[in-house]
Amino acid sequence: MRNLITDVAGLKVGSAHDPLLASGVTALVFDAPATASIAISGGAPGLRDAALLEADMTVQQIDALVLSGGSAFGLDSVGGVQAALRESGRGFDVAGQLVPIAPGAILFDLANGGDKSFWREPAYWRLGHAAAQAAALDFRLGSHGAGHGATVVDLKGGLGSASGQTSDGFRVGALVAVNAVGQATIGETGHFWAAPFERDGEFGGLGWPAPLPANALALKMKGAAPQNTNIAIVATDAALTKAEAKRVAVMAQDGLARALRPVHAAMDGDVVFSAATGRAEGPVDAIALTRIGAVAADCLARAVARAVFEAEPLPFANSLPSWRQKFGPRGT
Question: Is residue 83 a part of any domain in this protein?
């Protein structure tokens, strides 16, 4: 077990970023078309091809999912991923033409100090193409891919992942780019809100502070502008219908709520994709589906904390510090 979403059989993840642009793209590529759906809880989402994930839409399976920085400009990254997929012979066959299906979501990282003078060049298309080509079982967390330019209110954000398994034996994993309006940590401490769900000290092993500091519940936010978004994918090796995948996506949103405060706000674009590769045998009844959704939420909470824990600061004036810069190895 890698403690990555790639512990779910049937998918790989690749990332690419541009240090001068201070942004990047992460692509999750399925080995074979997979069933997928989506749950949107933020008030300002940025999406491409998301409507086709609803249960009543014609296309039943997809080839990839894309997470990108760059706000609306980052939606170009989907085209780059599609190009890489088509080059490898992937896609939905329409009148003899292959059309890879790769829904995507974006986050806002245009104010992080990077050089954003890319308006006349397809920067995100190129990053999407590179991310898809880099897809592998192992990938780096923190300031990589879609998490390269991400931030939370007081710390550097990043790319996170985690995995688990249900009591039925189904593998579940989460992947997230954390760019939250609020905090992943408690008050002014280095303790993570997601601490009760941590496994094997994966983000410091600090637990919750006891007692909670007096300012623990004070809200800290970036501001009223829609410059935030947590974009995530949860996946399982179970065989699910689109409607069942939708329920998993809805349940997995709770993982964001366990790890970030506040979340799902008017100025957030919080989105969770869910996918099922169908590689595992065994029936999925209502109880098994509920277990998958519950583990997906736990994995997503852990992935959020890992994203912040593993992040490195951007090399620009006035950039937010990383968790390790601010708190050191003990998180105090």
Answer: yes
Strand, helix or coil for residue 284: coil
Answer for the pair 190, 327: CB distance below 8 angstroms, yes or no.
yes
pLDDT digits (tens, 9 = 90+) for 117-164: 887 789 999 999 999 999 999 999 999 999 999 999 999 999 999 999
d(Cα 15, Cα 44) in Å, to the nearest integer? 24
SS3 195: helix
- The whole domain housing 244 covers 5-327
Q: What is the CATH number of the domain that holds 88?
A: 3.60.70.12
Residues 203, 194 contacting (CB under 8 angstroms):
yes
Q: CA 201 to CA 205: how far, in whole Å? A: 4
Which are the contacts of 22, defined by CB distance < 8 A and separation ≥ 6?
109, 112, 113, 114, 115, 148, 149, 314, 316
**β strands within the chain, DSSP E:** 11-18, 23-40, 47-48, 62-68, 92-94, 97-99, 104-106, 158-165, 171-178, 231-236, 271-276
